[in-house]
């Protein structure tokens, strides 16, 4: 199923993604070769830089290409690795695990963090949160990538959040809607076993290995206002980081 615009046509970045993928799979670009520059690709496909970057980001997540700052985009393989590749090289990269994917969230409801949940999330006990849950999918083939659970501080968010954030990141929507601005975030990645409920989403056996990515977003006063918990199959997740040494 292709992602479409409100008019029913495939989104422009989705068309470019498919054209570039077809070119890679048909050997127009050899593994190890650099793709043309952004300006050249924008001119070739008649798209904006935004649409092109979204298309290339989708190719990167699927293991077709690798982007390097000031070095261009290099073809890695003619076949998708089927793994979701999370590349961390900047603040934007770190926080855009969601870029180019879609999530259908449940209707928001209020929850209280009791002792166990508070410890799992690393927040205060008996605190009120808006809770949303959804499945993140790759729009190119609707394959489940992860299970997303979002908690937003209900004491600072007087009205219920929406359940469709479109292409926006949730913390950006929170800033626009509630005036709560993120000063930063902490991230923890740890190994877990899939619960029976989560295993059913991925068509896996309960207890199968998975990864949990937990982020706590805080404001300028260091107060946590949003927590996200992403559960991924371990085989579907690659965390890639490039470190440049100054000395």
TrEMBL record:
<dbReference type="GO" id="GO:0003677">
    <property type="term" value="F:DNA binding"/>
</dbReference>
<dbReference type="GO" id="GO:0003700">
    <property type="term" value="F:DNA-binding transcription factor activity"/>
</dbReference>
<dbReference type="InterPro" id="IPR036388">
    <property type="entry name" value="WH-like_DNA-bd_sf"/>
</dbReference>
<dbReference type="InterPro" id="IPR050679">
    <property type="entry name" value="Bact_HTH_transcr_reg"/>
</dbReference>
<dbReference type="Pfam" id="PF07702">
    <property type="entry name" value="UTRA"/>
</dbReference>
<dbReference type="InterPro" id="IPR011663">
    <property type="entry name" value="UTRA"/>
</dbReference>
<dbReference type="Pfam" id="PF00392">
    <property type="entry name" value="GntR"/>
</dbReference>
<protein>
    <submittedName>
        <fullName>Transcriptional regulator, GntR family</fullName>
    </submittedName>
</protein>
<dbReference type="InterPro" id="IPR028978">
    <property type="entry name" value="Chorismate_lyase_/UTRA_dom_sf"/>
</dbReference>
<dbReference type="InterPro" id="IPR000524">
    <property type="entry name" value="Tscrpt_reg_HTH_GntR"/>
</dbReference>
<keyword id="KW-0805">Transcription regulation</keyword>
<dbReference type="GO" id="GO:0045892">
    <property type="term" value="P:negative regulation of DNA-templated transcription"/>
</dbReference>
<dbReference type="InterPro" id="IPR036390">
    <property type="entry name" value="WH_DNA-bd_sf"/>
</dbReference>
<keyword id="KW-0804">Transcription</keyword>
<feature type="domain" description="HTH gntR-type">
    <location>
        <begin position="10"/>
        <end position="78"/>
    </location>
</feature>
<keyword id="KW-0238">DNA-binding</keyword>
